[in-house]
Amino acid sequence: MSKNIFILIIIVFSAFSVFIFFKNKTPQTNENLAIVCTDEVSPVCGSDGKTYENTCKALIAGVAIEKNIACNVKELKEEDIQNINYKIITYNKYIKLENGTFENNIFIEDFAFGDLDNDGNPDVAVILHIDNIQELAIILNDKENPIYWTSIILKEKTNNIAIKNQHIVCDSCTYKLEGTKLVLCAEGGT
Questions:
Q1: Distance from C-alpha of 41 to C-alpha of 55, rounded to nearest angstrom
Q2: Rounded to an integer, what distance in angstroms lies between the CA atom of residue 64 and that of residue 131?
Q3: Whether 120 and 36 share a structural domain
């Protein structure tokens, strides 16, 4: 019995010691923590008008994000992709879209903005509808000018498109731009 009481006293004393030790400690705030940013290059424009390597570095500098590209880069807009030349693989010819269409049978179905060639400029992946066929076209932002780059015929109908981490994600497939070719990375998409 006295052995049990002795063990109980030791447990109570240990718990009380831990309580006293932590009672006088102040919790750490963000000011006391070291923040480490990754080396990811995904330029952002800060509210101070400066370009930062990534969001983390801008926030450490204490500035808000104005836009998710470098400050001096023109973002491509929908009207930029609606009025340029595309190569239509189905017809093996180049056409110029006007307001997103060509002769009523070719039109833009969907598009997504994002950096595809790792230059920090937002490019565009465009789904073109051609006589019930879909083609995926890439428009690069080359020194603030939209440039048609390449296309492929999609094997399955796609309703959604996104650009994530330099990959084009469709409903059924994921592609990556490698030079002048779109390479299938994975089946399954979104």
A1: 9
A2: 46
A3: no
Q: Is the pLDDT of residue 21 over 70?
A: no
The residue type at 146: P
pTM of the full structure: 0.65
22/115 same-domain check = no
Note whether residue 72 is domain-resident: no
User: At 27, is the pLDDT very low, low, confident or very high (cuts 50, 70, 90)?
Assistant: very low
Q: Which of 109, 173, 110, 177 is nearest to 138 (CA)?
A: 177
Three-state SS at 81:
helix
Rg (CA), the chain: 27
171 close to 156: Cβ distance less than 8 angstroms: yes
Please check whether residue 87 lies inside any domain of the structure: yes
Which residues span the domain enclosing 26? 2-67
Q: What SS3 class is residue 110?
A: strand
